[in-house]
Amino acid sequence: MSHKNLIEQRIVDTLEKNYMPYAMSVIVSRAIPEIDGFKPSHRKLLFTMYKMGLLTGGRTKSANIVGQTMKLNPHGDMAIYETMVRLTRGNSALLHPFIDSKGNFGKQYSKDMQYAAPRYTEAKLDKLCEEIFRDLDKNTVDFVDNYDGTLKEPTLLPTTFPNILVNSNQGIAVGMASNICSFNLKEVCETTVQLIQDENVDISKYLKAPDISSGGQLIYKEKEISDIYNTGRGSFKVRGKYRYDKSNNCIEIYEIPYTTTTEAIIDSVIELVKSGKIKDITDVRDETDLSGLKVTLDLRRNTEPEALMNKLFKLTPLQDSFSCNFNILVNGKPRVMGIRQILKEWVAFRVSCIKRQIQYDIGKKSDKLHLLLGLKKILLDIDKAIRIVRETEEDALVVPNLMKGFDIDQIQAEFIAEIKLRNLNKEYILDRVSEVESLQKEIEELKGIYKDDNKVKKIITKQLNEVAKKYGQPRRTEIISEEHIEEITEEHLIEDYNLKIFLTQHNYLKKIPLVSLRANPEHKLKDDDFIVQEIDTHNKAELLLFSNKHTVYKCRIYEINDCKASSLGEYLNNMLNLEPDEKIINIVATDEYKGYMIFAFENGKVAKIDLSSYATKTNRKKLANAYSDLSPLVYLMYIEEDIELVAYSSIDKVLIFNTSNINSKSTRDSQGVQVLKEKKGSIMNAVKRIEDVKLADLDYYRTQNIPAVGYYLKPEDKEDNSQVKLISE
Predict the structure, then answer these.
(1) Which domain holds residue 138?
(2) Which of these three, 159, 190, 222, is where a domain ends?
(3) Are residue 381 and residue 434 in the same domain, yes or no?
């Protein structure tokens, strides 16, 4: 195969030449809304309906509208119809729909509820569109040729309110996207009015939060909303609304987040029930009807509706995030802007519209004034005008002769020549000429407004107040403060119950629910194994496991599998990845890390460490230096509050001391304080709880002050107090 015709090109050059024009076309001509709040597809459709007379007339078939729109929008009929569906009242996607519809247009909140074909549905423009098209015929915006040059269409619509923020809009272009949430019309108009008066106004004072057509509850977090308002990017959370029907023991969900569908919610609830994560729901069904959306959950008896809904908010799309990206085309360039900047750009756009409209009105009035000034001249001698017309033999010379006779221009002469014979009387001409003064006054006023931006802004303010009064609606999305929301974490979804944990000599750990233990209390252990520790706790507590290698391992008890007494349990060497010669010597369960760990060492020292020293902000599983390694460990235990302990030395000396005499430390590997003094090379070789010893005269061994040498064990106490080997052996 010959490669002679191949030409080498840099990939960057190829992309720039072939891909960039396409990308820019999608950005500018398709996917990103402009400052009037519309994408080209919306604008072409609404303008077509406007030209069809559907602002004032009755409804017509959607198929007719779609067909007419094709003259401006070179797309297939279904693509145009899909655009139309979203703008209708019937679809419920917008806070303020532009199209008054009749028939089935589907629902924004359902992916299965399909809209009817365009031949069955009817539509006309909603009354709100009066504000969208106001003064369109007064040169307020530019018009351009359509794709085949047979028609003219507007580049923007002169909307009298900031529609860009009032109705939500989404678009995916090439390399960028746009996602604009909707805001309440009254709040937007009021905010814009305040901004016109003071450009440094606190916007959040008037624009409370987004307001979405699907309703629901917006969880208000000041930082999130502030970020969106300031940068145009960010997200906020919306949750559905529900009511509890006590008589039927069911929950009815009647509003859901805008970003999800009833089908998605039902599917996720079914999945949770199947997987056993939620056991309180017996049935879920879609009962949406003509009165509106409704998803019903049948509950088991004694179910707490609020607790269940909190779980569903966490685990299903019943609580969902709306991501904002206020990317808008301004003068053909995409820009991501905060609310203040968007409204400033919109005000600048409206100032331009109104100035163009004033210029148009000045032009029209000046033209009329010019004609009337010509008419005023013939008032001086009507007979002369009649004589000129009568005595002119050629029709083509009538206008030139009038121009000469009265010193007027051609336009004025044409106007005079066209006056009917019956109107060539003094009364008619005087009536017409009397308008001259008022016209001159109006033109002066208009010129004054045109030159003064403040006067133009007063017109904008007046229009905004009128729109807010005429079309404003109460908020649909309720605002709830974040402090009223219980933050549902994984732990909320964990079942809590009482249990016992057993540690065996061979490092097996058994987690047994009390219910199971009562039913089957017989323990199974390896032949030479035995239980060295048992503790009472519950499923949501944390477990600390101390090893003979000065390390503590941490885990949540619910992460350990339940077992029966008849099973061996979890082998800790595998569960914790212990070193070959490492073993767990003590376990502690805690909720709030209150109390102390007591560590007694061979050198006679005892350390009292705050349990809070083992709490970590991050969920760490292993902490080194859990206790001092300077002397072999004799004993360790957890205490909630100070107690008496009995220390034994290798030369049969005994000392009873209170832990309150030892200051607690927050440093985990603190050496502690000297409790049992060394004598003749003795070591401390055992520590016991006072309730675990049998001493005839406790006071004999007690000391108020430490360190102390202790007292020799009395002969009568020797039999019952055989000493214990070191725990670390």
Answers:
(1) 32-159
(2) 159
(3) yes
Same domain, 646 and 583: yes
* Averaged pLDDT of the chain: 90
Lowest-confidence region among 21-35, 149-163, 592-606: 21-35
Do 352 and 302 sit in the same domain of this protein? Answer: no
C-alpha–C-alpha distance, residues 260 and 320, integer Å: 8
Q: Enter the DSSP assignment of 114.
A: P
Give the whole-angstrom CA distance, residue 416 versus residue 431: 15
- Could you tell me if 568 and 508 are in contact, meaning their C-beta atoms sit under 8 angstroms apart? yes
User: What's the CATH code of the domain at 292?
Assistant: 3.30.1360.40
Q: What is the CATH number of the domain that holds 531?
A: 2.120.10.90
User: Does 145 reside within a domain?
Assistant: yes
Within a domain: 661: yes
3-state secondary structure of 100: strand
> Who's near 469: CB < 8 A, 6+ residues apart?
none
**Whether residues 273 and 370 fall in one domain:** no
Rounded to the nearest 10 degrees, the angle between the axes of helix 185-197 and helix 453-471 is 160
Residue that finishes a domain, picked among 134, 159, 184: 159
- The catalytic residue among 120, 147, 497, 700 is 120
Count of structural domains within the chain = 4
* Residue 338 placed within a domain: no
List pLDDT tens digits, range 551-600. 999 998 988 888 988 888 999 999 998 998 899 999 999 988 999 999 99
**Per-residue pLDDT tens digits for 389-433:** 888 888 889 899 999 988 999 999 998 888 888 887 888 888 888
**What would the two tokens of residue 704 be?**
């108020």
Statement to judge: residues 303 and 356 lie in one domain:
no
Say if CB 118 and CB 106 are below 8 A apart. no
- By DSSP bridging, strand 295-299 and strand 327-330 are unpaired
Q: How far is CA 396 from CA 382, 389, 411, in A?
A: 21, 11, 14
Number of other CB atoms surrounding residue 147 within 10 Å? 11
Q: pLDDT tens, 57-85?
A: 899 999 999 999 999 988 889 999 999 99
- Is there a domain that residue 625 lies in? yes
Question: Helices in 294-333 by DSSP H: which ranges?
Answer: 305-315
DSSP 3-state percent helix, strand, coil across the chain (nearest 5): 35, 25, 40
Q: Tell me the pLDDT tens digit for each residue of 206-230.
A: 999 999 999 999 999 999 999 999 9
| 441 & 499 share domain | no
Residue 588: enclosing H or E segment and its boundaries?
A: strand 584-590
Q: Are strands 498-504 and 605-610 parallel, antiparallel or unpaired?
A: unpaired
- 686 by Cβ neighbours in 10 Å (0-12 / 13-18 / 19+) ranks as buried
Are residues 518 and 467 part of one domain? no
The enclosing domain of 134 has a CATH number of 3.90.199.10
Residue with tokens 């061996």: 568
Alpha helices in 569-667 (DSSP H): 572-575
DSSP letters for 401-440: HHHHHHT--HHHHHHHHTS-GGG-SHHHHHHHHTHHHHHH
- Give the span between the Cα atoms of 648 and 654, in whole angstroms: 5
Reported as type and span, the H/E element at residue 204 is none
Is 596 one of the catalytic residues? Answer: no
Q: Which residue has the tokens 């609304």?
A: 241
Closest CA to 98 of 26, 169, 32: 169
CA distance readout (Å), 508 to 526, 567, 583, 681, 710: 10, 10, 10, 37, 37
Q: Strand 217-220 to strand 478-481: parallel, antiparallel, or no bridges (unpaired)?
A: parallel
In terms of domains, do 405 and 445 share one? yes
Distance of CA 509 to CAs 210, 539, 639, Å? Answer: 53, 15, 21
Q: Give pLDDT tens digits for 93-148.
A: 999 999 999 999 999 999 888 899 999 999 999 999 999 999 999 999 999 999 98
